[in-house]
Amino acid sequence: MTFEEIKNAEHENIMDTYARFSLAIVRGEGVYAFDEEGRRYLDMGSGIGVNCLGYCDPDWAAAVSKQAATLNHCSNLYYNPIQIELAEKICKLTGYARVFFGNSGAEANEGAIKLARKYSNDKYGAQKGRNKILTLQNSFHGRTVTTLSATGQNSFHQHFDPFTPGFEAIPANDFDALKVACGDSVCAVIMEAIQGEGGVLPLDPEYVKKSAAFLKEKDILLIFDEVQTGAGRTGAFFGFEHFGIRPDIVSMAKGIAGGLPMGAFLCTDRLADVMGKGSHGSTFGGNPIASAGALVVLDKIPKLYRQITENGEYLRNELAKLPGITQVRGMGLMVGASLKDGLEAKDVASACIQKGLLVLTAKTALRFLPPLIITRAEIDEALAILKTVLEEQCA
Length: 395
Ligand SMILES: Cc1ncc(COP(=O)(O)O)c(C=O)c1O
Prior knowledge:
This protein has 12 helices and 17 strands.
């Protein structure tokens, strides 16, 4: 098929929800994606932070293929040993007591929200109405009706009324605002370590530390949405580790299964038994093939933390030297770059595609979520292309 044929078939058959770039990807290898004509693109977005081991890592592909030929699906009505092996590894690696597997970030957050509300209802009584969840302005937590309610960006709060009640967005990095908002009806607060879709904005470590201590005193649960920041993205398994805190509930997805749909939420020991039988479920959650992929990710990613940290620092330093970039931020290999007035992130990303580079945007910023296996030489290759594009756009 030619690109035009692909584009037309998409237009005729798929709901028009995605503003796609003019590019079709048909295969991938390492950090490179290839289009239908065999042209190569260095992918600094890894499918929005999913392909953490790059495209088609041979060990990952072998494990997934083997599992596909052994047991493709197993209902959660039965015990599924590979899912259990994965759960044991995740709990051991993270120090959390229990995990629940779903399929996406939004589903992971839905579960985290249910767990927080059930904990509060069980302990304080449903009639007390202690079920409100505070979220941060400019956050993003997913596209389901409830996770849209949790998302602190008004642009998402149109067209789909009525939304799930019980959420209030407070300003990020404002400890006094958090204290004031934590009234008797609040059961939890949800935060991202770095607001990814919001523009790659890391939270202030002091704010996070103070908030965590305050919430603990009030028995208000702290939920970290690590959907974008988790699975090693920031140079630690979870982004919150950089703040020296430990949330009660953590959600994750994206990179965890290295390119297969998987989401999960984890909880500490004291919440381990809150979700009893029948309280939650997911047909595909912890699917054996996705679990096989995730086991390879869990084996490989912790060995890369140092490389992720060093390469992230290098990327941020070098980006700051490029024309048209006014500010660079992030942690590990989750990096955002603001552009000077007059430069549009979407235009820069489109021009990069023409030159064989894929970059993401987040609001008005450029966003980089490269595969965690990326080498210094590959980063240099990406920077060289971006430099040419920015020089042209600034001229
Ligand atoms: C922080 C955060 N939470 C939740 C989501 C939703 O994840 P999914 O698209 O897998 O439902 C995203 C997706 O970008 C995200 O970045």
